[in-house]
Backbone:
C-alpha cells in the first residue's frame, strides 16, 4: 500500500448535491509546483465521483472571495458560497454552506486520499 498523503483541508463547502474542498498536501519537496500542492475538488454525492477543478485564478469582490476554474467559478463569504459549473452546454449552479474543515468525515477523507493517490500516481 502506498504511503498516505499528509492532507490539510483548507476550505469545505457543501449542499445536498455536492461538496467542494480545497486540500493542501503537506510534506512535499521544496519547489513542488503549486498545482501538486493545492487541489480544489468537487464531490458529486449522487454519482459518488470526485472531479478535480482546474484552478485558474483567485481574487476578491468586496466581502466575497472568488476562485475561477476551467470548469466554472466559486464565490464564498463567511457563511455561504456559490458554485457554477459548466459541463459541455450544461450550466449548474449550487448554493453551498460554509462548513468547518474538521467536519470532513473519515469516509470523505478516505475518498480524497484515494483520489489524490490515483491523480498524482503515488
Residues:
Amino acid at each position: 500500500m502506498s504511503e498516505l498523503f499528509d492532507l490539510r483541508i483548507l476550505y469545505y463547502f457543501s449542499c445536498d448535491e455536492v461538496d467542494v474542498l480545497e486540500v493542501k498536501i503537506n510534506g512535499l519537496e521544496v519547489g513542488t509546483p503549486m498545482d501538486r500542492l493545492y487541489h480544489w475538488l468537487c464531490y458529486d454525492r449522487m454519482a459518488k465521483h470526485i472531479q478535480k477543478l482546474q484552478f485558474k485564478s483567485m481574487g476578491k469582490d468586496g466581502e466575497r472571495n472568488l476562485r475561477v476554474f476551467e470548469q466554472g467559478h466559486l464565490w464564498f463569504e463567511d457563511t455561504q458560497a456559490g458554485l457554477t459549473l459548466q459541463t459541455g452546454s450544461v450550466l449548474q449552479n449550487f448554493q453551498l454552506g460554509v462548513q468547518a474543515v474538521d467536519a470532513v468525515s473519515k469516509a470523505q477523507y478516505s475518498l480524497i486520499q484515494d483520489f489524490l493517490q490515483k491523480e498524482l500516481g503515488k
The longest strand covers residues 6-14. The mean pLDDT is 94. The two ends are 10 Å apart (CA to CA).
